[in-house]
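Q: I'm writing up a methods section and want to include an example of the input and output format. Could you take the sequence below and give the corresponding predicted structure tokens, formatted cleanly so I can copy it straight into the document?
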Amino acid sequence: MNIFLVIIIVVAIVLAIVSGLNSALSWLLWVALIVGVIALIAFLFRVISGNKRV
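A: Here is the clean output for your methods example:
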């Protein structure tokens, strides 16, 4: 019975870690999308304005 309890605890810990990683990855995906959109807007603004900075 003790082995069964240890297996349940290990599975619960693994599921908690995986769900935490999933939520962190989801948050990072949104951050990456927002930064990508900002970079696209900046690029389009530079192309439309014709400013040639090197």
